[in-house]
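[PROTEIN RECORD]
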Amino acid sequence: LRLLDVAISDNKARPDGSAVPLTLGGAVLNDSTLIMRRTSIHENEASVGGAIMNRTGGTLYVINSTVADNLATSGGGIENGHNFLLNGAPAINNGGTVNVWHSTVVRAKDNNQESTNVGNIQSGTFYLANSIVDSACSGSFSSYGGNIFKKVCQRVSGDPNVDKTLTDVIVQNTGAIQLESLANNGGPNLPEAEFLSVKVGGTSPALDLGEAGYCTDPAIQPLFLVAKDQIGGDRPVGPECDAGALEVGTLPPQWNSDKPAGAGFFFPLTIFGKSWTSDQTLRIENKGGGSIAWQMLIENSAGGVFTLVDGPTSGGLGRNQSTTLTFRCAPTSMGWHDGMITILTDLPETPKFNYPISCAMKGDPDSPLAWRNQPPGPISAGQAPPGGQTTAKISVGNQGANPMAATVNLKDVLGDTIKFVLNIGAAVSAAGTHQDVTVPSGQTMTIDVTCAPNAPGLFTGTLEIATNDPLNPLLSYGISCEGVPAP
């Protein structure tokens, strides 16, 4: 029997009184030849062999597969043979031959002090190559190398001429393997059972650990000699194959940066006559697999205030690769200067990432300095039906050394449709249209502007923030919202 792109999950082989006192193999009970390629065996249950029981006469291949989160009284994962008491008499089966190639066999649960994912306690043969086992082992195994085990498992080399056990990695705790949760990382979309797998982190010892001679299936037939992982990705991606069911490089690319896109960031202050420029960095990386092609643009930088001083303007990010870009702000005048770092990518769902940037030059290093999360101008609070409300946020912070006095005033509003609430640290003001406040050094004032239309139509107002910052004495925002008919 051959299984390809198959998931077997949520099967419960439970005892049933004296008629069935014990059960074997929650997902599979094998007495013949079974080739399992690109399979997902998870969350099954039996008395012995929570996932698979292979008995005498059975030849089992588990290739590019995940066996995870299975449950048993003894031997929660893959068991080759058994030895237990049944009605007071020994029930012994020597097991057959098991081949586990490029598979992830993890997180079994059983009644032992330390659960076992693989067991070979009788005289059967259990071969392992380029696989991950995150528990202690029961019995003796033949290793073709490239495996990760938690703690030392009793092993002999599967190759009589070369000690392949020397290429295995032994870790003392599962955290070192960097296993992630059981999840849909790709592969076939099956209607009845989820095709799940467990991937490892980008710096796991599983990366490039695999023995090159065992990156293909061990089932001998030429049809099966293909170097693919569980989700159909090519092996290897990198110098060698990765241990486990998934080749990390075949995972989808995943964009990441040390500063959140869209939120914006600002540069250290420049002081007139003392420090004319300031630098800021942005680190971009690919946390997934594959590659990301990217290109960086600096936009809305009037007079060339912002420039790239270190790092490329374009390139590619492979698996777990990162690049740090260093930008410089050189203000041409006092006050705030705004720009935008735009990074274009070949990611189909997120082709563009925007990073708003701001920097300022001031004359007196001790005076207050009003930082704002967006330049003054029009702001839409959105839409709401009559009786409802919608909110816009404006943040003004004090980067200066001394407290900043501010007067927040809302004017030119029709009726009481628009109000604001101030938040400074843990202090929250009552809703209103005018307030005098003090913003301590290093703190930020968040202004929640709420619009509550009393009828359909456009409602407007002007929010003014007057400060004792000599560079920003007045920040003015045109607030608008629209009343729309109730749905």
Summary: Residues 143 and 158 are 5 Å apart (CA to CA). The chain has no helices and 40 strands. The mean pLDDT is 88. The first strand starts at residue 2 and ends at 9.
